Amino acid sequence: MRAEISVTGAANRLEGPLLYLHRNVNVGLNQAVEVIGADGEPRLGRIAALDREQMIIEMLESTANLALADARARFHGEPLRFGVGPGLLGRIFNGVGEVIDGGPPIPAVQRLPIEGRPINPVHREIPREFIETGITALDLLNSLVRGQKLPIFSGSGLPHDRLAIQLAQWSRLLEGGDGEEFAIVFVGMGVPYVTAERFRKAMEDSGALERTALFLNLASDSATQRLLTPRFALTAAEYMAFEEERHVLVVMTDMTNYCEALRQVSASHGEVPSRKGFPGHMYSDLATIYERAGRLGDRGGSLTQVPLLTMPGDDITHPIPDLTGYITEGQMVLDRDLARKDIYPPVAVLPSLSRLMGEGTGSGYTDPDHPDLAKQLYAAYARCLQVRTLAGILGEEGLPELDRQYLAFGDTFEQQVLHQEGQRSLREDLELGWQVLQQLPVEELNRLSDEQIERHIGGTDGAGA
Predict the structure, then answer these.
(1) Whole-number Å distance between alpha carbons of 229 and 224
(2) CB burial readout 257-293, b (16+ within 10 A) else e
(3) What domains are there in the chain, each with its CATH number?
(4) Which of 9, 60, 262, 307 qualifies as a FRET site for 318, CA 20 to 30 Å off?
């Protein structure tokens, strides 16, 4: 039994989402609090700071019409918890785990702390085994594996919302997964109402909502609530992954809104700012979210994360993408120049990387020749970009024939491999990759063996001849 304590008449100041109270009870940091006003409505909060004389409560719900004289605080004596159970999929929640789809509450079988349970590193397994996203730039060139955390770095105005929706709709385990179950947790943070409705409608219309738990934190919600949204969502994901033993993919957008909320709340606490006004503890705060991805040796499920963020000013050295890159295992970068050429998704191949691709591709996972094909496509496209720079100086007419072949290859690669209108299977991705390499002479395919060239491209007479 948890002990609950109620305090009346202790509130002395309200500043935005922060409620200041005289400290006259023995409580701890991050404990859950309900603040009840004259209207009798409980408002959820948590203890954010305290000293000998006062404590600060972060209000997670609206403080409208909350009079200090009438405020009564009820302390739960434990951290915030989320009631989870078998009915999470197909449901829509707000940023603090409350059902907002008009259906009944979740029949909770466990109440788990939203900060997650510490995982002994000895129990972690190396992420492995391929997840098919239906997006060629990921599946073919930067494969996602179970238990990985692979962020997508975007920019303002780029189609990352569309990409997030398609990740949720198209992602699946490869066929022959021995009856393993797959689920999606989709998290929208600080999104406008129109965008939230777009997410909801896209999931419902495609049927993806049946295997998805959807968490929506609106731009009109408080910054303090935004900080808890990914934690409620990841608590649900951990339950499905490690209790129900599903393979869970968590898609989170937009982590930039989360970090902006962290800066706002940090400033309201009077903390000394670091780079660009963000708190010095932002690295460790982001780590408490990203490090909840993984696999456990004694459990059958996995938790994979694809967080999306918008880089302010397209600056990849900005603290948000910079710190995210330190914690995660690679990144996908969306490119504005490709978007202007109507390439979708506009994934910049060279700065994109999946550090764990080798753990989920090749023999026993996808196709034995998949890793070598990806390396050859990367090398050929890198050469094409070098030639484009040279062509901008000399003109295409001044280039040798081989360089012009690389230019043609680059255009075909962007239009036929990177660009896609609908979902593709990995098999289709591989066929496209081998097709576009036929534009180059075989002596240029130095990442492939003679046997691979003979099997997939056909002969050694020169594909581009």
Answers:
(1) 9
(2) bbbbbbbbbbebeeeeeeeeebbeebbebbbebbbbb
(3) 5-79 (2.40.10.170), 82-359 (3.40.50.12240), 370-456 (no CATH)
(4) 60
Contacts of 122 (CB under 8 A, 6+ apart): none
The dihedral sign for the CA sequence 285, 324, 417, 392: positive
Report pTM: 0.91
Cα(335)–Cα(71) distance, rounded to whole angstroms?
A: 51
- The string of pLDDT tens digits covering residues 206-234 is 999 999 999 999 999 988 899 999 999 99
Contact 35, 45 (CB under 8 A): yes
Neighbours of 327 (CB within 10 A): 17
- Does 47 score more than 80 pLDDT? yes
Give the CA distances from residue 175 to residues 142, 165, 276, 369, 426, in Å, rounded to whole numbers and listed in that order.
Answer: 20, 22, 46, 18, 11
* 464 three-state secondary structure: coil
At 22, list the tokens: 């005289």
8 Å CB contact between 325 and 286: no
Q: Which residue has the tokens 């608590």?
A: 235
The helix (H) or strand (E) run that includes residue 84 is: strand 81-84
Q: Find how far residue 199's CA is from the centre of its chain.
A: 15
- Residue 462 confidence (pLDDT) above 60: no
How far is CA 433 from each of CA 352, 371, 374, 429, 458, rounded to the nearest angstrom? 17, 12, 8, 6, 14
pLDDT at 153: 98
